[in-house]
What we know:
Layout lengths: L2 H26 L5 H22 L3 H10 L1 H25 L2 H8 L2 H12 L6 H18 L12 H22 L5 H23 L7 H28 L3 H5 L5 H13 L5 H20 L5
Helix pairs in contact: 1-5, 1-10, 1-12, 2-4, 2-9, 2-10, 3-9, 4-8, 4-9, 5-8, 5-12, 6-7, 6-8, 7-13
Amino acid sequence: MHPDRRALLLGLAAVFFWSTVATAFKVALRYLDVFQLVFFASLFSAAALLAAVAWRGQLHKLAEELRTYPGYYLGMAALNPCIYYVVLLHAYDLLPAQQAQAINYTWAITLSLLAIPLLGQPLKGRDATAAAFGYFGVLIIATRGDLLGLAFDSLPGVGLALASTLLWAFYWIFSARNPRDGTVALCLNFLLAIPMAAMLCAVFSEIHWPGWQGLAGAGYVGLFEMGVTFLLWSAALRTATRVALVGNLIFLAPFLSLVFIQLILGETIHPATLVGLCLIVPAALFQQMQRPAAQ
Length: 295
């Protein structure tokens, strides 16, 4: 099979799984609370990533990396999955899935804005334009188009969804400064996060073996939001002869996600959600297309 064809198939598989995650979050939260879901999903993700590292013969790298950079990996594990998913899942608990997933998708815009102070990149016109369109789209979605009334389904939920984009952007900026193997690094994150997530669960909830529905939900989130899908996406990017061939597929995810939200969760997709996404997605795509090739 031609490398680009294989990359396209891998990329589409990753986008498909990421498109189901908003629905999976809401279903799993019917049977587990936020802290329980983070803990059990982290277990599944760590197991999948550990299997991938073992299959590649890189188990020795886990100990080597941890000995060399213990503070870095402990901090990254606390950031993702612990803090990030606790914040994101609380947003999903408070908001309709269509709103939470659409707002969370502005992380690409947040990333470009954070790169200005953290990486010393200049503020460019495209960044300001993309931010204006993207966050106006968020306002339309969060108010269901009632811009004058500013009636939010849950203002705390909107705040948490926006905070999750900030956390995810911080995570990717710090990850970009780590030139090491991404699978090994992510595996360490989740292995170290397990005791952290267990402590959070013990303090703010309780740890008990869930029923099969909760376990299935946590397993799906752990495998297809946190673990396996990352491996599929990484493989697609490595296989493609041109990164743009695969990279732009991610812009299909929020629209495909709405299909699963309506079919499985039964949410009626509000016109304001579509209008908002039609502002957010082109804004993020505009930034991607305008970046210099060296970046």
